[in-house]
């Protein structure tokens, strides 16, 4: 599977999209470069919520690996998102090109870093990594596949997934979230929210017994994407997703002009709820109009 990102991540194809090597190579040849910003944290969250799901082709029994390829320093918190993936048993390999921040790559990648972090000076040099990286990946998959663990990955379904996300009490800077918990309570919930047009994602972690949250300090008149993800000991369950827009800030109303003289006038209006200051702009009428 492959996702490409800038300020907004985009799934190019899911894990189940191509079943042969030839199909996959053809898809790579047809891939169009997506320019823009470098929101790596948002991209990693996208991979967890969209790409590593059964309906995107992820098999519960298979090892989960993410290879991050980046040519710049992240403009959001990549470490927080990466830690969430690693806590769920997903292994991250980080490959930097040109202006990538090596310290950030080492933060994001899984241990041991000598096997999971790579950095080259330019794109053509990536070809020198292919052989080694292929051997390392295949070896790691075999090692992890044969390792016996007491916990088995959780499966998705009504027992493990919350339902009925309700977004209410929406104002210009806040909203309230509530949902029905799954039959089997999770260990924790991850609530991720961010503006749909590419803002920095924010995350709140709640105990599994909690099923509501008040989001505050939001931007007015902005569409937000919200995800509520249940986290179990060995995996994440299916998340709930919602979208809603905060209200615009209230405006002053009923502007009136009175007490006109040759060099002054009085303005009055109905107050805007919550306003702390007003900016009053005054300019002469356009040429040709009466002053």
TrEMBL record:
In its keyword annotation, does this UniProt entry include Secreted? yes
- Note the Gene3D superfamilies from the entry: Immunoglobulins (2.60.40.10), von Willebrand factor, type A domain (3.40.50.410)
Q: Where in or outside the cell is it found?
A: Secreted, Extracellular space, Extracellular matrix
* Subcellular location, principal: secreted
Chain ranges of the Fibronectin type-III domain: 161-250
Q: Which SMART domains match?
A: FN3, VWA
Domain VWFA, chain residue ranges per copy: 1-133
Keywords (A to Z) from UniProt: Extracellular matrix, Secreted
Among PANTHER family, the record links this protein to:
COLLAGEN ALPHA, COLLAGEN ALPHA-1(XX) CHAIN
Question: What's the name of the protein?
Answer: COKA1 protein
């Amino acid at each position: 599977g492959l996702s490409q990102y800038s300020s907004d991540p985009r799934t190019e194809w899911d894990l189940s999209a191509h079943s042969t090597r030839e199909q996959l190579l053809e898809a790579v040849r047809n891939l169009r470069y997506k320019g823009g910003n470098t929101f790596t944290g948002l991209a990693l969250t996208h991979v967890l919520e969209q790409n590593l799901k059964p309906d995107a082709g992820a098999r519960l029994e298979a090892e989960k690996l993410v290879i991050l390829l980046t040519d710049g320093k992240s403009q959001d918190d990549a470490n927080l998102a990466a830690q969430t993936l690693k806590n769920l048993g997903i292994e991250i390999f980080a490959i930097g090109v040109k202006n990538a921040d090596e310290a950030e790559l080492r933060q994001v990648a899984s241990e041991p870093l000598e096997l999971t972090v790579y950095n080259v000076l330019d794109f053509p040099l990536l070809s020198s990594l292919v052989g080694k990286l292929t051997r390392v990946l295949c070896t790691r998959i075999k090692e992890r596949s044969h390792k016996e663990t007491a916990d088995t990955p959780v499966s998705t379904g009504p027992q493990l997934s919350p339902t009925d996300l309700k977004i209410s009490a929406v104002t210009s800077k806040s909203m309230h979230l509530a949902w029905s918990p799954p039959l089997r309570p999770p260990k924790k919930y991850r609530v991720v929210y961010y503006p749909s047009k590419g803002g920095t994602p924010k995350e709140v972690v709640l105990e599994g017994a909690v099923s509501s949250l008040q989001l505050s300090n939001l931007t007015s008149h902005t569409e937000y994407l919200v995800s509520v993800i249940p986290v179990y000991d060995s995996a994440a369950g299916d998340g709930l997703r919602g979208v809603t827009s905060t209200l615009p800030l209230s405006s002053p109303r009923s502007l009136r002009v009175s007490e006109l003289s040759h060099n002054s006038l009085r303005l009055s209006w109905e107050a805007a709820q919550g306003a702390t200051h007003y900016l009053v702009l005054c300019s002469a009428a356009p040429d040709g109009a009466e002053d």
